[in-house]
Amino acid sequence: MANELTFEAIRGVQSRTAYYTVMVPMKMVPRLFIFDGDGLPPDLRAQRVLSKARVPQIANYLAENWDNYILSSLCASVDGDLTFTPAGSDGSLRNVGTLSFAMDARIILNDGQHRRAAIEEALKTRPALENETISVVVFADRGLGRSQQMFSDLNMNAVRPSNSLNILYDKRDPLAGLSVDVFRQVPFFNRFLELEKKSLSNRTTKLYTLSSLQQAHEWMVGPTGDRFGASTLDRVVQFWNVLYNIMDDWQRLDGGSLNAHDLRQNTVHSHGVLLQSFGVLGGSLIDAFPETWPEKLQSLSSLDWSRRNATLWEGKVMNDARMNGQRRSVLLGAAILFETVGLPLELRMKAAIDAQGQVAA
Fold it and tell me: Measured by CB atoms within 10 angstroms of the end CB, which terminus of the chain is less buried, N or C?
């Protein structure tokens, strides 16, 4: 009928209630699905407030990877009569057919409002996306209370993968690619880098996470991973291998005379904040001394990395003997490394030192 919307659909059952999966052309997504308003209080909404920061991220992903992207299904509730017409009466054909509902039916997104808004934005710069489709799981609307419960259930059971695992599987981000290549080419990291978990447990045999290494590389070679041009990967691998030969504790861990737990309990260098500080040092040192930086780096062998050395580390990478992973701590730790190898402090380090002094005062 002219006043109905009809989609090819597959019917299923959850909680003894029918639901349907349909394919919706991208061009129909913005005008078909309603977002129920930023202005409403939480108790009158069926989902979270739209994050203005997330929408352009997803939209850019779609526009830039329009020939190689993937989007998960939307989930929607239709406030109106749903009519399912099966393709046949026997076997599997009973659950394949068409789903129809009135064009003026109210359709609320229970999950996927950011994807919906991003599709709308991406279509402005990539109109070729308009005839591509996204799958939508459709339920009959059973009121605000049920919609809120659906949102809660969907997000309660969703587990976001760790940053490390995202980095490991990301084939688009050049910095992620660099970090994975370094993991594979630096023997120490190959043995002592955690690739999946968000944090390190007390019993782990690993020393750092891949996410921490990626952060160190962002400081070292920038977000695009190309500070040293075509030789960037070689330079970074060389830096970590030279540092390994300087760090007695890394070698003792590798040889089995130390364990990762004790090392993390007793030293500052075994935490992500100092790994990032090493990254800051590496980029600047290689820039300043392209040929002789390995010799300059040897000065680090004189540092006392013990967490008991409060005079050196407290108030910089530690607060009350607890490690501090803030950006300022990375720069304060890097300042110590710069002074040790004889590099002049950068403006961002001086600013961090000034800010630390104000906090202490």
Answer: C
